[in-house]
């Protein structure tokens, strides 16, 4: 790899991040990979096509003459949040990544993403280069750049180490001569393993194809507003948002599943206010700050429903 890209990776690693850089030439391949997936698997197109449509394959061109794509992975803990029901204090789990998870529209205001972006900008500015955060298929880019590899659960495992990472993608005018572009592959650990498949509450992980059946994955429903489908019984729910079942059981993650951070505790009054969907603007400042610390401002409208689902599953 060239000196400049090599220096960038070394520098970014000093922050505890991991990175790969690939040439901008591959952007068309990424786009066609995504288009092929939705053409071959009509269910993917039906259920997650609206997210795929938001990927940006070139709108940044006016503001940056991009030569490379930088893929960044940042280790993330499992988050534990405490709620209080009368005298009972109960813990809910939030999977890694949700501390930074933000819609494309709001990520410019997300404190942690702003911090990551400013670190990247600072390192690149030493060589007079720039970067722009962009919305591209993160997992696919991580896999094709060699930063990660897919598991059977379609989660991306970074450096074969764990899946507990947030992945971000940036376009840069930094040149990339010897990039690490490669074919998609599945983790070696998956060859004789089907633990995630057996542990998935709704059979979303497929035996007959690599792509999971997104319409059976509970994440699709608890990350969006609306009633849960009737087939989603109370046993499905295990996290305040998303789902941990296929990651918790995975042997590749075993050294990291105890990396849990307690980030917020809501007392009885606060828990009640959340459950009755008190508008954000009417919450006490302390409660608002707690929600912010767990990155639950944008998704606040999901919190009461998801919390009730955990109560009905008797996990709380
Ligand atoms: S549980 Fe097994 S099959 Fe599933 S992702 Fe992990 S190693 Fe692969
Ligand atoms: S996130 Fe949950 S529902 Fe989705 S595939 Fe994994 S275990 Fe199944």
Automatic annotation (TrEMBL):
Entry keyword set: 4Fe-4S, Iron, Iron-sulfur, Metal-binding
SUPFAM superfamilies: 4Fe-4S ferredoxins
Residue stretches making up the 4Fe-4S ferredoxin-type domain: 181-210
UniProt KW Iron keyword: yes
Pfam families: Fer4_16 (PF13484)
Family matches, as InterPro entries: 4Fe4S_Fe-S-bd (IPR017896), 4Fe4S_Fe_S_CS (IPR017900), QueG (IPR004453)
Entry keyword annotation includes GTP-binding: no
Bilayer-spanning residue ranges: none
Protein name: 4Fe-4S double cluster binding domain-containing protein
